[in-house]
């Protein structure tokens, strides 16, 4: 049985003419843009070439396009349509008149939390960005080339858990760098640590479920859990990490912690508290999500084994990423899971996007296995240590006792508190700094509820330094001083 | 306030020795593998080099590792630990004794649906795979190089909607190839079309919501909606696509359709039915998800404008992908959304994984804008047309009237029905073919409920041909004949 031919509307020259004219007027094609060749368009649209040519002739006659021998037709130079502009500006959410799911409505309700980078800032202390010149371009290029040279016989969908080569490389690396002992099966590659958080929220949390989170904490983690409808149980932190003694009789399905380097305040969770957290989790059957987001950047600390290694009853999910060490744009992270969760996590990953891109996974495997990754991390650690020392020295030299600096021992950021500037001036300080090209970020959006005691009355800034050169760090602090001097205190 | 030094356990030579020995015995390091240099490991662990050296000396003495001048220590040749093996085999789901969310439990309940590719097959008619030799490696390499040469000043998180260059390139391309008129803001880049389905399921469907789906249909789409707890309303299809007259008074939140090329049966939805579907959607306030998964592969059909272009009241979400035209491993797809949904979809994408990998997005933008993509698609269409003709001719020559071939006009697969082999033989036929290295796939897993009438008593196979050379296609059909001859009919 061959299908009968259906009567479908044919495309005439008039349609092509009108559509192309509209495409030019609305800026889909801007001036000087090449439009499709008549042969190409005829083939795409399934019409004869003469139909397309007739439309093109009319467009030429009316001055929309120009044709020349041997080149593709182009939009005329004097067309003044506005090309659509689209920058990485804050996402605009329009009120959908149609219905969304409860998840969709929660996203819209929380959308004020989203922030994005303003490209106009000369000196941006945004946390999470890293300097482009630090990227190991030549060596990365080498690894990408090595992968591109291997031509596969068949291109097909892959294991949702990730590239076998990368999982093997990470198993080795995690043992060397973090003393994590796990099988390759426990490692699942994700599209950045954010995807690990999102998938864990989906497979572990139902609407209304309580989850424990440090306060202050990483906003995108909290967003992930809250978007599933779960309810935060914020726990205070001090210089030894989350104050687990406050867990007491609380019950929760999950606890999200950053024990190696509390985000953003920088404490390292003490051994006593690690043990307390693990026994609490065992008592109430909770999962622990350990986000080891910047473990590559220790400067003067002996490393502490991750919670994952302590957990005898396999309640800890360990999350890592190369966003801090290589590039946030690469979107490669990994979760190390207890055996009980690998299967369901892999199913969730497959449903979410089948698997990560093959090319960059295999390039990263090559980069790690050849030793280039750890060489790069060591170099990067030295560079960032210089930036860290420069920032701390500049802050101390400039502000002396007026400023308190927290979380200086590891990572790629510090938190600073101004002892003598009232919190009411914070918004103005940040806005004035932005006007001068300096990006500053309040700790306030990471605190919910507000921090107790004096902290809630002080200006607190999270200052990332990984993307800024030493000169500009010094300049940025000088500009901050100028901004503060201009405030009416 | 500098944080006080915490008393943390130090790592001694004994720990290093024991951990490394265990790593070797358990196969984390296999024989001949290089282990870290003592300098590197000392730096990673924050211990003195002599501590590491002492551990290494003991491992040498006991025969676990060998050291030589100027090279990294290696695992000895006579170590016989089993390296962990991990292939892209079906995901094993272990019974989690701890609690999962309702979503997690639904995933586990449905996990028998997952399939994965068996690398042992010589001639695999799996749909979704494409031939490695068809990939435009040299030109793709060129585009990747062009992107890698541009060094960004700052590496930071990007717009969740995707690379501006790629969205612009797709806006142009979609106008040329599909007569879709949309702004760049309406195009959001996703990690393959699967991610678009998953995000749409999350933002549009609540547990218990009904959704319309063709029967048979693409299993991973149905999985996405069902994983959110939504309930399928399957609608029959014929050679003109989904039988929209059966929608009647049904109400649903969403309808998933493949109007350009019904998957898997191959019908093209008629204009009348397109109109009927749109007015039904308007009546009950439903969203329509139009999956245009293989529009690049039309052979003898005039193209029909997508539903997206027909929808005056903007209820259609259009989904496209480069998985069929370039590589399923690249994981780049796109959704073209009504304005009302762009904001919430972007928030969902940001929560899911922040954004797609930057490198491949920009390489694809370069590849499209330079005209290489459409040149590749035209070449690919000719190649796949030859494969299609070869398969159909071989099937007709071999089986004559015994076989009915469906959906031959577009796409990268056909469906064949055997008129005279009882359905009870299907499993045996497929298993015997697999034994002979031929991958065959029943249509049955795509049908729920079973197809009505005769179809449910016939053997039906979905045969993808995009990854197989002409010779092997002919050979595959000959082997199929042999398998059928061996069945006890």
The shape of chain A, in one word, is globular
Question: Helix/strand/pairing class of chain A, anyone?
Answer: alpha/beta
End-to-end Cα distance of chain A: 85 Å
Oligomer: homodimer
Number of helices of chain A: 15
Strand order of the largest sheet of chain A: 6-13-12-11-10-7-8-9
Low-confidence stretches of chain A: 1-8, 81-97
Question: What does the largest sheet of chain A look like?
Answer: 8 strands, mixed
* Total DSSP E strands of chain A: 17
Biggest chain pair interface:
A-B, 157 and 156 residues
Tell me the Rg of chain A in angstroms: 27 Å
What's the helical proportion of residues of chain A? 25-40%
Q: What percentage of the residues of chain A does DSSP assign to strands (E)?
A: 5-15%
Mean pLDDT of chain A: 88
């Amino acid at each position: 049985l061959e299908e009968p031919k259906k009567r479908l509307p044919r495309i005439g020259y008039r349609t092509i003419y009108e559509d192309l004219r509209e495409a030019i007027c609305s800026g889909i094609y801007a001036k000087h843009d090449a439009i499709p060749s008549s042969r190409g368009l005829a083939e795409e649209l399934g019409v004869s070439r003469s139909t397309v040519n007739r439309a093109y002739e009319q467009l030429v006659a009316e001055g929309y396009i120009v044709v020349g021998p041997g080149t593709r037709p182009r939009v005329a130079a004097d067309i003044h349509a506005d090309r659509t502009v689209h920058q990485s500006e804050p996402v605009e959410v329009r009120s959908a008149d149609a219905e969304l799911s409860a998840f969709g409505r929660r996203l819209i309700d929380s959308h004020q939390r989203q922030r994005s980078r303003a490209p106009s800032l000369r000196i941006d202390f945004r946390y999470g960005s890293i300097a482009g010149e630090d990227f190991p371009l030549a060596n990365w290029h080498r690894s990408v080339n090595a992968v591109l040279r291997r031509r596969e016989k068949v291109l097909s969908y892959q294991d949702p858990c990730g590239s076998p080569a990368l999982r093997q490389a990470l198993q080795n690396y995690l043992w060397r760098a973090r003393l994590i002992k796990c099988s390759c099966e426990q490692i699942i590659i994700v599209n950045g640590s954010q995807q690990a958080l999102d998938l864990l929220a989906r497979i572990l949390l139902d609407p209304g479920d309580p989850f424990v989170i440090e306060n202050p904490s990483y906003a995108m983690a909290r967003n992930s859990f809250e978007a599933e409808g779960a309810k935060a149980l914020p726990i205070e932190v001090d210089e030894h990490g989350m104050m687990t003694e406050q867990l007491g009789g609380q019950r929760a399905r999950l606890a999200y912690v950053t024990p190696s380097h509390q985000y953003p305040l920088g404490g390292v969770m003490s051994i006593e508290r690690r043990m307390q957290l693990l026994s609490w989790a065992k008592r109430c059957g909770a999962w622990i999500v350990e986000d080891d987001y910047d473990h590559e950047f220790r400067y003067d600390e002996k490393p502490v084994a991750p919670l994952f290694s302590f957990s005898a009853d396999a309640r800890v999910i360990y999350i890592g990423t190369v966003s801090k060490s290589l590039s946030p744009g690469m979107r490669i992270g990994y979760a190390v899971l207890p055996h009980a969760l690998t299967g369901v996590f892999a199913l969730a990953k497959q449903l979410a996007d089948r698997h990560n891109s093959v090319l960059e996974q295999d390039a990263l495997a090559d980069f790690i296995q050849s030793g280039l990754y750890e060489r790069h991390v060591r170099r990067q650690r030295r560079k960032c240590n210089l930036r860290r020392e420069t920032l701390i020295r500049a802050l101390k030299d400039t502000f002396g006792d007026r400023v308190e600096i927290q979380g200086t021992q590891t990572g790629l950021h510090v938190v600073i508190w101004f002892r003598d500037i009232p919190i009411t001036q914070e918004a103005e300080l940040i806005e004035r700094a932005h006007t001068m090209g300096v990006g500053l970020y309040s700790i306030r959006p990471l605190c919910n509820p507000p921090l107790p005691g004096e902290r809630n009355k002080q200006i607190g800034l999270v200052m990332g330094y990984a993307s800024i050169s030493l000169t500009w760090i010094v300049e940025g602090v000088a500009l901050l001083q100028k901004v503060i001097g201009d405030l009416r205190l």
